[in-house]
Amino acid sequence: MNESLISGMRIVDSILPIGRGQRQLILGDRNTGKTSIVLSTLLTNNKNNYLGSMDGFGCKRLFGIYIGINQNLSKLYKLTSTSSAFTIILGTHSSSTAMITLTLPLLGITFAEQLRDRGFDVLLCFDDLSKHAKSYRQISLILGKVPSRDAFPADIFNIHSSILERCGRLNWYFRGSLSCFPIIETVNSDITEFIATNVISITDGQIYTNKQLFNFGIRPAIDSALSVSRIGSSSQCKFITIIVIIHLDLDYKIPIVALVISSVGSIIDLSRKVKWKV
């Protein structure tokens, strides 16, 4: 992956670079701005999409597919009003059956693969996979499968991995890519729960939204200590990489210089006190 996916947020593009074809998990508590990260990425790439539709520009268009699993109808309506011509929205509401909720991610990733095989770059968002796992648990308990941790069936990891492993970048056949943003909703900031740890082990990195940062008014409420991108700077724009290196270098050097100055000052004060006593 050597092509970056611009999200429009400085903290993501600088220290958490995302490449086209990467699977980046977004997890956090309820109402902490997880969906807004996906919307910011889609709206940022809309300008490049309109430039890419013109002749003479080398911008590659990015198609977005949003899959809302058991979402409110008001939220889906707001998404449709803010979306562009390059965005496909598939959704089920809270009163939908478990079978429709279970098959919706498979339908969305089939659409995404059709666009990828034609040479386009696609961004796929599952909002959210924890509700998809609950629907599969409901069906499995009705069918009489043996429950495991948190009453989930043992093959829930296989279900999610079979969906997310279909994302990636092709080096042949029109060189398309399929990026994925699965969203997981945690409870009481517990990222060690069963579904969250499963999806973390499948994806190429995670973005964690902190509820305390969100309540303090920090937008986006991304916790940089628990967030990581395993692709690294190989997919980052080289100009942004140089700026980040210079900025981090100054951030590390300025406290060291201040510490040296303060230590030298304390040594001088101590020597003066020793001389005065002598």
What do you see in this structure?
The chain has 278 residues and is of the alpha/beta class. It has two domains: 10-236, P-loop containing nucleotide triphosphate hydrolases (Rossmann fold), CATH 3.40.50; 238-278. It is 48% helix and 15% strand. It contains nine helices and eight strands. The chain has helices spanning 10-15, 34-52, 73-82, 98-117, 129-143, 156-164, 194-202, 211-215, 238-277; strands at 25-28, 62-68, 87-91, 121-127, 168-169, 177-185, 205-209, 228-229. Strands 1, 2, 3, 4, 5, 6, 7 and 8 form an eight-stranded mixed β-sheet that branches. Strand 5 and strand 6 (177-185) form a beta hairpin. The N and C termini lie far apart (68 Å). 36% of the residues are buried. Residues 250-254, 256-260 and 273-278 have low confidence and may be disordered.
List key phrases describing it.
single chain, Rossmann fold, 2 domains, eight-stranded mixed beta sheet, 9 helices
